Amino acid sequence: MFRAMVGIGILCALLIVVTYEFTLPIIKKNKTEALEKAVFKVLPGATKKITYKLNDDKSFEEFHQERQKEQLVYAGFDDDGKLVGLAIEASGQGFQDVLNILYGYSPESQTLIGFYVLESKETPGLGDKIEKDKAFLDNFSALDVSLEESLDALKNLVNPVKHGTKKNPWEIDCITGATISSKAIGKIIKESSQYWVPIIYNHKDSFKQ
Question: Is 52 a member of any domain?
Fold first, then answer.
C-alpha cells in the first residue's frame, strides 16, 4: 500500500509538471494577445503599438524581448505616426482578489483616456460592474492628471468619490452596489498615475517615431 501511494504521488506530480510545461506557452500567448487588444481599447485612435522599457535613469527605450521583471509601457500611434498615448499596467487589491488593469494616458492633454480590466475575480453582478458600467467607464475618457508647474508631481491626485458627488475632473464617480471594487480601481490608478505620469511626461520625446 505504501509503495502504491508513493507511486501514485510521483505520477500525479509528474502529470502536473508536464501539464504546466505544455500549457505555459499557450497561457503566455493568450495573455499577450489579450494585452495587445486591450492597448488599442484604452488608446482610442491608435493603430500601431510599440513597447518601451523604463531604464534605471528613468529614460525609455524600445523593448523587443520576452518580459521578465522589466517595467514596460505601450505607446500607441495613429496612421500618421502621431503619438496617441501610453498604455500603462497597474494592479492592486480588490474586494475578492488582486485586480490587474490597463489605462491609457495622453501626454498632450494630460488626461487618462481609457481604462480596461485585464484580470478580475470580483463578485459577478456586483464587483464586476467595474468592467461593464458605462457611467463608471466614462470617468476615464478625460480624467485629469495634469502636472504642477515643476512637472514632478500631479496637481491633484486621482480621487474616488461617492456616486453622484463628482465635481472635479480628477475625481472618479464610484458605483453604487460596487463601492469597494470601484474605490479599489480609484486607489490603483491614484498610486500608479502619480508614479508614471511625471516620468512619461518628462520623457515624452522618447516616444516619437
Answer: yes
Contact indicator for 203, 58 with CB cutoff of 8 Å:
yes
Q: What is the pLDDT of residues 157-181, one digit of tens each?
A: 999 999 999 999 999 999 988 888 9
Any domain includes 183: yes
| No. of helices (H) and no. of strands (E), the chain | 3, 9
Query: Distance between CA atoms of 36 and 97, rounded to whole angstroms?
Result: 23
In a domain, 76, yes or no: yes
Q: Give how many domains the chain has, as a whole number.
A: 1
Q: How far apart are CA 152 and CA 137, in angstroms?
A: 28
Cα–Cα distance, 45 to 42 (Å, whole number): 9
- Confirm whether 15 is domain-assigned: no
Distances (CA, A) of 141 to 21, 46, 80, 145, 172: 40, 15, 22, 12, 11
* Residue 61 pLDDT class (50, 70, 90 cuts): very high
- What is the grid cell recorded at 148? 504642477
Q: Could you tell me the residue range of the domain that residue 73 belongs to?
A: 38-207
* pTM score of the predicted model: 0.84
- Find how far residue 130's CA is from the centre of its chain: 13
Is the dihedral angle over the CA atoms 53, 56, 58, 61 positive or is it negative? negative
